[in-house]
Amino acid sequence: TNQTQPHQQASNLWSSRLAFILAAAGSAVGLGNIWKFPYITGEHGGGAFVLVYLVCIAIIGVPVLIAETMIGRRGGQSPVATMRSLTDSEGTARGWRIIGWNGVIASFLVLSFYSVIGGWALVYIGKAAAGLFTGADAETIGGQFGNLLANPWELLLWHSVFMAIVVLIVGRGIRSGLERAVNTLMPLLFILLVVMVFYAMNSGSFGRAVDFMFAPDFSKLTTKGVLVALGHAAFTLSIGIGVLMAYGSYLPKKVNIARTAMTIAVLDTSVALLAGLAIFPLVFANGLEPGTGPGLIFVTLPLAFGQMTGGVLFGVIFFALLLVAAVTSAISMLEPVVEWLEEHKGINRFKSALAGGLAIWFVGIGTVLSFNVWSDIHPLGFLAFFEGKTVFDLLDFLVSNLMMPLGGLAIALFAGWAMRREGLMEDIGLRGGVYRSFMVVLRYLTPAGILVVFLYNLI
Ligand code: PFF
Ligand code: NA
């Protein structure tokens, strides 16, 4: 195996704490916030569900976010090399190294399908701008979405464009690629979101949306709702997948990780709540259904835009918002792969981004086809467990329900139990009683919480 070099040289680190916050928040804020959170909130009892979700962010999300970033900064290399050098220097079992491989492979796989969906955002910016929703009925708009999914060439084209954008950003490196992109895109995302919320306040049923999202009705909260909240807390913060380990490897030593992790979690949660306040008022104002699942932002919302004054402009703004959120998440998924190629294969940054991106693009064709030509192909369908799952469903299940939670569990256990304690307090950035309480949560509550979700998802 190749000797790897930690890249903790000043020129190759995030230039500030803010730069890291924007990049990590960019990774966290994605489809999970803009589509999934509002929808599952409505389905599982509104305010009561939001409360449980916040508790889960605190006991699972933030601890793993802190631990993963801390491990990444300590190792200062790709997830694979970081875990190799840490297991050596800590004198722990070599089995922990699987955390690194899990990260590189899971982020590779998740990007292969995320990019296809990112392509939908590109298509919908065009549809909104062309006025295709104006005055259209539910059948027409549903048909537009159906026709997109049925056309492999169109999906492939936009998947390719999306991947090209991601490769061009990541290929330029941490400072002139990722940092410059998030410095522009994250403020833009925030502005677009605020514009959408104001639009919704003035032209939608804002009060009803606020009730729908925040009125706590504990009788509507089920066991399943609690588990969904737990699972989403992990997904929404991008933990357990090597992304934060890779981003943490470029983090200067002086940055306080605990405080930074809190900021990222607050930003991610705020965007999720604001997205709900932008979407639901429009849905309610037009007498539409809030709980339509995958169709919510690609069918229900366009229907609302098609009936409203300013619908063309705000439709474009909404899908631009979706695209920005998707791009800043996608670049984070390519980073572990690129870092691994650079260090282990000795390929320069740009070529690593190109080669990694090309391989991911190729695997993404499986997802493209799973919506049309291969829609009846269920690769592991002979196992009852995977019955009816297309290539896309399988990849999503593998990453979101297996690799991410197990990665998060292993990270909590490694940081909480296996790593030596000296220097840990300083690395994390907590003191005294707060540090001791944090360690109790990381060692017991976090693993227990993840295990419960994991076993539930499996059954
Ligand atoms: N956190 C993203 C979201 O909420 O949409 C999803 C995600 C990003 C998952 C990056 C995994 C990842 F590596
Ligand atoms: Na998120």
Q: How would you sum up this structure, described in words?
A:
One of its GO terms (molecular function) is symporter activity. It is found in: Membrane. It holds the Pfam family SNF. One of its GO terms (cellular component) is membrane. This is Transporter. This protein is mostly helical and 459 residues long. The protein has one domain (10-391): Hydantoin permease. The protein is built from 18 helices and no strands. It has helices spanning 17-28, 31-43, 47-75, 79-90, 98-129, 138-150, 152-171, 174-203, 206-214, 223-236, 243-248, 257-285, 295-307, 311-345, 349-370, 391-418, 424-428, 432-458. Helix 1 crosses helix 14 (311-345) and helix 9 crosses helix 12 (257-285). It is globular and about 65 Å long. The chain binds 4-fluoro-L-phenylalanine and sodium ion. Residues 27-28, 30-33, 107, 110, 235-236, 238, 241, 243, 329, 332-333 line the site of 4-fluoro-L-phenylalanine.
Q: Summarize the biggest pleated sheet.
A: none
Q: What is the name of the CATH class?
A: Mainly Alpha
Residue windows where pLDDT falls under 50 for at least 5 positions: 1-5
β-strand amount: under 5%
CATH level-3 fold name: Hydantoin permease
Helical content stands at over 70%
Number of domains: 1
Tally of DSSP β-strands: 0
Q: Which sequence of SSEs, written as H and E, runs from N to C? A: HHHHHHHHHHHHHHHHHH
Globally, the shape reads globular
| Computed CA radius of gyration, to the nearest angstrom | 21 Å
Q: What's the overall average pLDDT, rounded?
A: 92
Key terms:
459 residues, mainly alpha, globular, disordered N terminus, binds sodium ion, YocR/YhdH-like, SNS_sf, membrane
